[in-house]
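TA notes. Do not distribute before section.
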Amino acid sequence: MYKLRLSFAVFIFSLLMSPLLAAAPVKITFSADKMQGSGQKGQNSTALTGNAKVSVDSLNIYGERIELYGKDYRYIRASGNVTGEDAEKGFTFSAASLSYDRETEVAEFMGQAKVEDTKNKVETAAERIEYNQKNEIILLQMAVKLKSKDIICDSLFAVYNRNTSMLELTGKPAVKKGKDEFKAARISVDLETEDIKLEGKVSGSVTEEKGDATAAETSAKEEPKTP
């Protein structure tokens, strides 16, 4: 009986997805404890609840509830312990909720959101994260935290470009690099070279290594040699 119900659900879902599959070569698969859907002309909608999973090509989305809706199922909305990954594009994510536009390829993560750039080994976190997969730009808002190698960043707002590894921080930004700390009105960081640029109301502290301090002190005390 269970197999019959599952086969029937897959059959119905295939019917609902047929307009999408005919319009674009996109592979969409799903699984859940329960499914409910409707196939009104031009406005299809499908709701998956309970251990829901939706895969769009290499993108996998997990959540307690996932909805696909709009013309040709353009939009995906997930809620309840949302997690996911895209191994092909190199990122993972988690959030309280997610909204994704398949046409613009823009994803919005809300509520203790985290996006990890696994290709560049950059970890980001904020209350709201918007990721544009077409231009590879990630916008972070409120309680922003970012970590890359020895660099740790905090701010209210940030823009991270995955293609160029450039990071722009505003809203009381602070950057720690090892034992050094920098603050300014605006901070730019090249995460590849670890170069830091400060603009406006600059402050900071730099910790000199003991070896460097000893060498500097010895050099200062050394008397010039007589030719």
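Switch to the second chain here.
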Amino acid sequence: MCAADLNIKKILSLHEKNDREEAGLFLIEGRREIDLAVKNGVNIVQILDSSNTSAKNLARISYRGEIVAVAEIPRRDSKNLVLPPDPLVVVLDRLEKPGNIGAILRTAEAAGVNAVLVCGGGGDLCNPNLIRASLGAVFSIPVFCLTDVEAINWLDSRKIPIIVASPYAQKTYFTHDFKRSSAVIIGSEADGVSEIWSKKAAASVAIPMRGAVDSLNASVSAATLIYEALRQRHENP
């Protein structure tokens, strides 16, 4: 599509989830994020930058005023994912803030997590804030939006034990053995891990809190547990 044919109104509508789903398209802002998307098979439909779009319109499309790609929403199929022995999986249980989900994806990708399952309604992987917060990691790590039941069945079929992060657990996270197959469940900051996951847990672990504050941001909790697993696996390859 040439610059003269650009429908700015249509492109602007892709900031909204319903419009993205209806069009089957979404926006990717930033050269690094676009490069990662292309490397991982995302089909780019159109590129908008200063060479073909006015500065005013580009600023309306991109919060950062950068190069923007219009891309097809990729299909993600968890059924055919091949996991290595003793995989590390992260499950996000009812996390609502796209920025938190994106930050966790960035950490998970950096640490070599094998898959991330997003459950409980937070599953808009094409949200611009999520993509920005992930620095494009959403395109390079296996991540899937599943219902709770689908995710539990997925883990059960692969014999991956469920490890729940809970402030009420008797065992601290650094005493747990993360070297074996593990699915770490991160709950929302407001409500914690939901009952369906707590009932399926093989173990619960707590992050010690020594000050007046009694909880951490979900992305910080996830990073703490992910890198403890990485530390253990690095020391005992």
